[in-house]
Design goal:
The complex is a heterodimer. Chain A contains twelve helices and two strands, in the order H-H-H-H-E-H-H-H-H-H-E-H-H-H. By secondary structure, chain A is mainly α. Chain A has a domain of 210 residues. A two-stranded antiparallel sheet of chain A has the order 1-2. In chain A, helix 1 runs parallel beside helix 6, helix 2 runs antiparallel to helix 3 and helix 10 runs parallel beside helix 12. Chain B is globular, with a radius of gyration of 19 Å. Chain B is 37% helix and 23% strand. A six-stranded mixed β-sheet of chain B has the order 6-7-8-3-9-10, with helices on both faces. Chain B has a four-stranded antiparallel β-sheet with strand order 2-1-4-5, covered by helices on one side. The longest helix of chain B has 18 residues. By secondary structure, chain B is an alpha/beta fold. Chain B has one domain: P-loop containing nucleotide triphosphate hydrolases (Rossmann fold, 3-Layer(aba) Sandwich), CATH 3.40.50.300. The chains are: A mainly alpha, B alpha/beta. At the A-B interface, helix 6, helix 7 and helix 8 of A face helix 2, strand 6, helix 3 and helix 5 of B.
Amino acid sequence: MWLNILQGTMEQGLIFGLLAMGVYLTFRILDFPDLTVEGSFPLGASVAAVLIINGTNPFLATFLAFLAGILAGMITGVINTKLKIAGLLAGILTMTSLYSINLRIMGRANIPLLRERTILTIIKGWGLPERYISLIAFAIIVLCIKFILDYFLHSEIGMALRATGDSPVMIESLGVNTDTIKILGLGLANGLTALSGALTCQYQGFADVGMGIGMIVIGLASVIIGEVVIRTSRIVYATLGVIVGSIIYRMAIAVALQLGFAPTDLKVVTAVLVILALGAPSLRRFMIQDEFAERLMEGGATDAEA
Amino acid sequence: MLKLKNIHKIFNYGRINENHALKDINLIVPKGDFVTIIGSNGAGKSTLLNLVAGTYFPESGTVEINGQDMTNWPVHKRAHLVGRVFQDPLKGTAAEMTIEENLSLAVKRGERRGLRLGLNKKRREEFQGLLALLELGLENRLEDPVKLLSGGQRQALTLLMATLGDPEILLLDEYTANLDPKTAVQILEITGRVVEQGKLTVLMVTHDLKQALEMGNRTIMMDQGRIILDLKGEEREKTTVNSLLEKFSEKSGRELTNDRMLLQR
């Protein structure tokens, strides 16, 4: 049974790794707190699900979901850069709009895909060991995208993107339009998120309009866990860290469920996890002060004074 | 060649805190000129540089570079002609990126950026050669993130980056002000060398009157948004720091004061 749970967490971790890569792109690379993710995740699922039940090739449907996500992210980018509306609010505005749009796309709140032809049923036909199909398929997709993303972030445009988050004044003085780059980066990040949503709906067998709630915190948790596990400033390891972080996050969730938490408790568990991780440096100061006070009491004072 | 014609810059136009920062500035800087700019706090020195860079746009007047009117061009659009070193050493480089990555961003100044890799063997060798010119040992640290460098090293790197990709004009805005005196001298030496090599036109704002007379071939003094003195040639050679101070009080009817200058004396 443990092996089954482990496999399940790996599969989920891999799919959500795409979402986490998107969050990494915006929060870490672009330094842009993008909440569009909460809407582009179900957008990806809605687009893929509707196309699939209408007989579109699942691969094409998934790709179109990716494009829809890009468009959503670019809209947030335009709202922020051209209309000068704060990034956080720009994301919220797009996210809120997407709730209505996703309902329009699906025509109802939930679309089941149980007997439909999906990416996974197609791959099943290729003769892979049936039990591990999802795991193998997701691993290949996620790793391919990781390597493409690594390459992109080392390309001329990709480096301009990193510099836009790191030192916008400088990269502008070198001739880069940071508005355009931000729009591009947000597009890409939400494309990855939508792709994650499209794969999720095919994996779990349904698309639901509410499936985006809490995605930003899940993505952030994965990014943070990844940073703790793999400490590096090198992109190649950082993107790997994000995927590993996503898998570890799923494992932590599985453990929490085994410990008796209800599935509905998981969002608060995740949020607390993120608060603790992000707040750690501030809390650490007090811990160090306490510890040092003890050291002084124990006669280490002479050392400290010297 | 840089040409500023009848420039007026007014901040907070029409509001109660309106500030007429530049008043009818006319300035022609021929190619290859190295102009040092001095003046009190609030004289408009940095505002002038920002107008050339495209950070600010004037309320009236024109900014021309090589005969092209670029008064309303944003920073990124004129970056192929204008290189810049900022007062804050942290601003001119990307801290999380490596030295070689920063340089590769600069070689593509003003050019179209594509999906090719930003770095290759040839570029790395080129960068090593360039960094060696700085004589700071950075040529052996290509893969170090810039955040590991000292302020002086970062400013030297920024200077190198500001001159890569063939700009015409180099803007230096009190770029040694945040460095210790020894490093500042080093950076000034490097500046002399790279400017010579690139045959650049330079505008350099400084608070150090000695530096203003030693560097370059022309000195401009500003006060309350106006250019009140333009020294070049023989007249400039005869000028000393003291006569410069006298000239200031003569022209403006006040003492030349600047927080930094006061601290220095």
